[in-house]
């Protein structure tokens, strides 16, 4: 929030305000003119309105009452992405409501990051990659498709499987996240997630995703599980009690950034591949702004003929990228990862 936004309401009380409260109230405003506008933090928003015969008016931004004029908007009362501005005109027992969705986009074009491919490793082409994580020489991978879904860990360099567990055929495995001694694994449409002991792969629990959504990607920021569902929303879940704790909308300078898929968290940033795009977006985990883009155009195109780049992991200060049924995993040295 660099500048103040003043929301000014110009109220023209046309006609006799002392008329009977049962009279129909007429409201016209410029609210709708903001429906198809890309706004930025710092832009002035000025609502002009005319009414007849009203008692009072109220403006709410994202459900919170704001002053009718000279209101300072900030991160505390608006978000990047879609916001709801609601105008209510009270006349006696009658309420007239006007509502508009305000789209606030990022003010800066994402930086396009350069990188070098410094290594490649064998990736099992049977793996329909849905979740991907790396630590201490080991890859943890969750795979999808009914009847083929599994959780597997293997040595990255030797491609030697250390542990593997098949998922019941009724479930389609999705994103995974490592939380301490546990591995969490989402499923696609069942709204169910499984928890495994990280060392033994023994299943130690499961829970229902606390809202109605498909499960796509999953990562962990040290406090919350972060889940994607193919939209531009990321959803936060407490891994201790499985409660929904909030969401983040992802936008760039042009608009919402949807089709977010596999996720990885690193150092305040969320890395996500965009379904069927050859790019990784790097998201500010506080604001949802896409600040950087890593194009995967330099990765041999044969891989994308097999499937989407649905495996993102951090290896030290490098990025590991693989995809559904790819034969290789690539290590990318990215400038300032
Ligand atoms: Ca990942």
Annotation keywords:
337 residues; mainly beta; Immunoglobulin-like; Neuraminidase; five-stranded mixed β-sheet; 1 helix; 1% helix; 52% strand; binds calcium ion
N-to-C span? 25 Å
Number of domains: 2
Oligomer designation: single chain
> Which class do the helix and strand fractions yield?
mainly beta
Query: How many distinct helices?
Result: 1
CATH names the topology of the largest domain as Neuraminidase
Q: Catalogue the unreliable spans.
A: 1-23
Helix content: under 10%
CATH architecture of the largest domain: 6 Propeller
Mean pLDDT: 89
Count the strands? Answer: 30
List the strand order in the largest sheet.
Answer: 3-9-8-5-6
Task: Give the overall silhouette.
Answer: elongated
Assigned CATH class of the largest domain: Mainly Beta
| CATH superfamily (homologous) name of the largest domain | TolB, C-terminal domain
């Amino acid at each position: 929030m660099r500048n103040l936004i003043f929301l000014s309401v110009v109220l023209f009380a046309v006609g006799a305000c002392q008329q009977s409260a049962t009279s129909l109230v007429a409201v016209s405003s410029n609210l709708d003119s903001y429906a198809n506008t890309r706004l930025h933090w710092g832009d002035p928003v000025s609502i002009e309105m005319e009414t007849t015969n009203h008692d009072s008016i109220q403006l709410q931004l994202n459900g919170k009452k704001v002053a009718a004029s000279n209101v300072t908007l900030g991160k505390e009362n608006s978000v990047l992405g879609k916001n709801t501005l609601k105008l209510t005109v009270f006349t006696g027992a009658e309420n007239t409501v006007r509502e508009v969705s305000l789209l606030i986009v990022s003010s800066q074009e994402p930086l396009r990051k350069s990188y070098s491919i410094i290594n490649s490793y064998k990736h099992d082409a049977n793996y329909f990659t849905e979740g991907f994580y790396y630590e201490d020489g080991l890859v943890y991978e969750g795979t999808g498709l009914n009847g083929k879904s599994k959780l597997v860990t293997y040595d990255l360099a030797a491609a030697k499987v250390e542990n593997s567990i098949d998922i019941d055929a009724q479930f389609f495995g999705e994103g995974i996240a490592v939380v301490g001694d546990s591995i969490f694994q989402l499923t696609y449409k069942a709204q169910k997630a499984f928890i495994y002991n990280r060392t033994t792969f023994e299943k130690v629990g499961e829970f229902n995703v606390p809202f109605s959504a498909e499960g796509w990607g999953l990562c962990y920021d040290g406090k919350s599980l972060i889940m994607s569902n193919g939209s531009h929303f990321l959803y936060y879940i407490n891994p201790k009690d499985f409660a929904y704790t909030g969401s983040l909308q992802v936008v760039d300078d042009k608009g919402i950034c949807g089709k977010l898929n596999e996720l990885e968290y690193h150092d305040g940033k969320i890395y996500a591949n965009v379904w069927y795009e050859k790019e990784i977006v790097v998201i500010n985990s506080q604001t949802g702004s896409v600040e950087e883009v890593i194009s995967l155009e330099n990765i041999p195109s044969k891989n994308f003929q097999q499937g989407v780049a649905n495996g993102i992991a951090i290896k030290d200060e490098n990025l590991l990228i693989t995809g559904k049924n790819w034969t290789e995993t690539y290590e990318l040295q990215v400038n300032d990862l």
